[in-house]
Structures are given as C-alpha cells and as structure tokens.
Amino acid sequence: xxEKLTEQDRRLLDALQENCRLSNQELAERAGxxxxxxxxxxxxxxxxxxxxxxxxxxxxxxxxxxxQAIVHVTLTRHDHRHVDTFIAEIRRRSxxxxxxxxxxEADYHLRVVCRDLAAYxxxxxxxxFRLPGIANVRTNLVLxxxxxHSAVPVQTGPG
Amino acid sequence: xxEKLTEQDRRLLDALQENCRLSNQELAERAGxxxxxxxxxxxxxxxxxxxxxxxxxxxxxxxxxxxQAIVHVTLTRHDHRHVDTFIAEIRRRSxxxxxxxxxxEADYHLRVVCRDLAAYxxxxxxxxFRLPGIANVRTNLVLxxxxxHSAVPVQTGPG
DNA sequence: CAAGAATCGGTAAATTCTACCATATTGAAG
DNA sequence: CTTCAATATGGTAGAATTTACCGATTCTTG
Lengths: 159, 159
What we know:
The structure is a homodimer of 159-residue chains.
Chain A: H1 7-18, H2 24-31, H3 35-47, E1 51-58, E2 67-75, H4 80-92, E3 96-102, E4 108-114, H5 117-127, E5 134-148
Antiparallel strand pairs in A: 2-4, 2-5, 3-4
Chain A binds a DNA duplex (30 and 30 nucleotides) through helix 3.
C-alpha cells in the first residue's frame, strides 16, 4: 500500500495508462528500475486498488455505436428510495457508459451510447422515462469526440 | 479488417474490455476458439483500429485527484480560428480527460480533474478563461462517481 | 551501533507468446 | 459436379516472458 507515490510509481502508471500490455522488461526500462522491483511495484499498485483494471479501449463508431449523447437527469426532490433504484438501474444498463452525480441544474450527468437514434429513443421511452422519481431529462447529442483521454495525470507530491 | 463482427469477435472484445491482460489461452477458451485463431483475430481487431489501445484504468482519488468537475463551455458564435485553438489547447491540457462537442445550451462538455479546488481555480483563471472566444463557462462539481464503465456494448448485428 | 524489517537485483522453472506448418474449408469458375 | 485458388483452421516448437524465490543490501528504530 503506497502511502506516497514516488516518481517511479508515477512513471509506471503513466506507462501503463498509455499501454498496459508492455512487457515487464520494457516497463522496468522506462521507469528506470530492475525487472524484479518493477514487477513487485506494479503488483503493489494493483493490490492497493490504484489500478482498477486493465482494459481494451475500443473505437466507439467501429464498434457499431453510431449514436452518443450527454444526458442530464433531475430527480424529484430527493426520495432516497428513488435515488437508490435510479443508481442501481443506471448501473445495470450497458448503454450508460458513465454517470456522475453533480451540483448545478441537473442531478446526474450520463453518457449514453446506442446503435442509432431509434435505439436511443427506445432507451428513453422503455427505460429512462419509466424510472420512478424522474423529474427532468435533457439530451445533448454528441456531435464529435474532441478528446477521450481517460489517462489520469497522476500526482506524485504530498498525497 | 472485419466487415461484420461475429459473435466470437464480440466475445473477444467483451473479454478484452473487462481484462486485457488475460493470456491468449484463457481468451481463446472464453471465446470458444483455438489459441491460434484467437491470436489472429485479436491482431486483426487491433489492426482494424477497433481496439484503440490497451490501458490501465486508475482509481482517480487514489491517484491524488480529489477534485472533479463537468464543465460546460460555450464559444462566441463560431469563429473557426477560435474553435481550432480551443480544441488544440483542450487536447494539450492533461486535466481535461474528456471533451465532447454537443448540441444544446453548451457547445462543449468537458470533464476536468485536479488535485483540489485551488488547482481547479488556477486551471480556470490561468488557462480556460484566457482562451480566445470563450463566451460562457459553467462548472458542475462532481459529487460522486456513480458509474465509470468505459466498456462499450459491442454490436454484432448488421454493422 | 546493532537488530529487525523492508527492499533490492538476480536467477531458474513454468508459462506464454508468436511464427510457421500441413490440413481443412470456402468460394468461384469451368 | 469438379477443380482450383484463396482463405481460414488447429497444432507445434523455439523464443520470450512471467513469476516465485534467493541471498545481499539498504533503511528504520531503539
């Protein structure tokens, strides 16, 4: 369990975020450490939960998902039962890639992908609109992915 | 270059999204194919650009980023020069993890992570507010990550 | 300084990757 | 239907990698 992340940790995490299928040898080389130390360190970072998982990031359009939207959802003021079912149902639906609870006008920001507009319409009518306690839904179509980095700028200082 | 994705492709991509460090053997087993065929297929999916990259997904808080916000940005109507610099600068800044151009009230939806509120304030004052052509910026603090799946529900049908 | 704990780099066995093979399957043309 | 070419298939062996363990070194702590 790394209390503080070292500069080497940061380099390891940067490299693994860029390409997590690097061999341990190449990883060690980039981070400037021996293969043994590198292997141990990576394990420690995994077990500390710093690395949530290793994932293949797909091209969303080539995967057959032509439709993408940012959806702002507001719930009726705030019955806990409704909040819990909302969260549980959102987590269950594979079309919802991300969901954040936020301050501001909307309670939740979702990112939803579907095959096409028709599929999104079904998502709304058959699923989202039918959840209990939904007060307002506002859809913003995604015109273009400007940036999808998903690589976190790891902080190394007093952590 | 897969014209249509097969059911096996879909299973491969699902498995790789869940854990891209599975051994080729285990991958082949899950997708119900021989190791040779599996290895070739994965290569093909990579070369077709369906797999953008393999990445370690980090725990954002454990990485030292305690502050997260969804930021809505509107540009003054729409000078192309301003749009281009805006996009280029946004791509340069590591605090901006995602950025989508959207329909609706705001032109762009950003997700920004920083060490703390002070760092975010610097991001705004020293960077975002100084970009040319910014008409409006609205910040929504992220209270809680409800879901960060980042695994795309791959479509296998007529693609 | 001395004792204990933690970390280091190196090593070897087990596993895995990767390129190649001969065979089987597919698709088109005669 | 048959033939031929093109493609896909499963198996295999050498190369590379992973992974657990070793003694040696460094770092704490009293």
